[in-house]
Amino acid sequence: MNLSSRQIDAFLALAVSLSFTRAAAQCHLSQPAFSALIRSLEEGLGLRLFDRSTRHVSLTSEGEDFLVAARRIRIEMDAALSSMKSTASLERGRVSIALLPSLSAGWLPNVLRQYRSAHPGIEISIADVLSEPCIELVASSKADFALAAVRVDTPELCASPFCSDGFHLVCRRDHPLAKISLTTGHGARTTSQLSALAAWPFIHMARHSSVRQYLEAAFHPQVMRTVMEVEQLATVAGMVRAGLGISVIPTLTAFHFKHPDLITRPLPLPGLTRQIYLVRRRDRGLSVAAQALHDHIVHHRPPSE
Amino acid sequence: MNLSSRQIDAFLALAVSLSFTRAAAQCHLSQPAFSALIRSLEEGLGLRLFDRSTRHVSLTSEGEDFLVAARRIRIEMDAALSSMKSTASLERGRVSIALLPSLSAGWLPNVLRQYRSAHPGIEISIADVLSEPCIELVASSKADFALAAVRVDTPELCASPFCSDGFHLVCRRDHPLAKISLTTGHGARTTSQLSALAAWPFIHMARHSSVRQYLEAAFHPQVMRTVMEVEQLATVAGMVRAGLGISVIPTLTAFHFKHPDLITRPLPLPGLTRQIYLVRRRDRGLSVAAQALHDHIVHHRPPSE
DNA sequence: CGATCTTACGGGATTCGTAAACATA
DNA sequence: TATGTTTACGAATCCCGTAAGATCG
Description:
five-stranded mixed β-sheet; three-stranded antiparallel β-sheet; 11 helices; rod-shaped
């Protein structure tokens, strides 16, 4: 038999009010339609649930048994419906994203603050890791989507361009490079600018970082004077401030280097543009909460350079 | 929104099989109809529950949440439906009746044995008490119906004739009355028969018993030679056997007096017929189990005299 | 006779199944 | 191309509301 929530509601309304007329009104039905609904329930169960005469309505013995069962069904239905409703309306939910530290520290917080104030009930999980683990997290469904510097295109994953990020030179305020102008150039002009930079002791990021990859490719075949390799941008800042060398860092992370002793300047060299992709699974759509964050993030994507 | 068991079943079938075609067959629906059912559920909830392409079907994040809720709803529904089904089919239930001891000891057991073998799962409660408490139990809904010697007719209760019960003389085999013939009589004949009985020492039931009431009325205005008043028929039997007196007992209880030392003989006197009524509440119908017992009892009612 | 539940019935919405269109591996 | 989902659409069914009927106090 088919048992509908309307039948349950009708039964409960009648069991409480013990009046077809009032219960019908409560269910927003005409009284005959309501009567038919109760009858269909009774026929489906094969039992009379109410003793009724024109003047009196009361639960039968079987109706009393069904009352407790109907209440339990109603409770489960209400729980399911309200849970789904709050999920659909973004009152509750969870979303997990993975993205580069360069994005997570500077650009993300403000964007996320807006999202959170709009949907305070949604739990957010952030994995601020390098591109490779970002992809891993999405591939293993531990993250809903990722912002990473790798264009993946597998049966499982796909990437779409998200934004492009330039690079900034960073050096001490008293460094000779702080004075010279860096302009967009082509050919020989570019080569000479690269030479000017390559001449100075350089603080590098670790080899597996996308920043390092881009720099190696852009400066090739020039050999750079690597002073050291570090993992964290904060360490780069400290080293440069101590006068151990210069560095080149993504524009998105330039805010880390706002310091009286330091200068950051755009490095508008061709090829020195890091592309950042939004990576997601091919098969699964995003959850409601993830889709909302996705839309919000895309809407507030950083300015591309 | 309206949530039906068909939607729940469709969702669960699809969540398990992850194939519209197979799930549709399982639900005895054409595949497009099944697809529409799933869509109606998703639209009702305002959420996509499945990610589907032509080659792959999988639960969304929200669908996984709904899966646990749907299972709980299904469990409650199944519990309710199976409980109601077993009640309707008389596999389970309870029935409570009140009836006179004269009926409960002799006639009832065999009738009840048949009922019980047909419906072994139904709990039966018997109150073998005198007419007044019988009525009380029905009036207070502690008994579904009663068999008693009182014709009640109140706003709450109504009585219908059930059977009529004659009376038997009981005396020792060596008693003078054991020899004489007792025939149906009228007028003077009756009076003389009554006189013949009233002459002997008599073992009476207590004043509040219906048997005593009938005897007092039938013998009036003759004065009986009351030896003693007792409560139980078994005591009457013992007293008569000891030669302390004779007695008159309902035909339905005559089996109590089958003893080598005793004689029981019908007492076909006009007015000496006890009417037994089936008493039930006016407002409430009988439960399924009670109705079945009612029908069975009426069908096997004792032969009226 | 008044209040209330049931039956009767016409119109409208829902739902079904068949067939065609569409999408993916 | 083959499998499987969605769309299109006519037909059957279900459901609702109005109106009339029945029943009890």
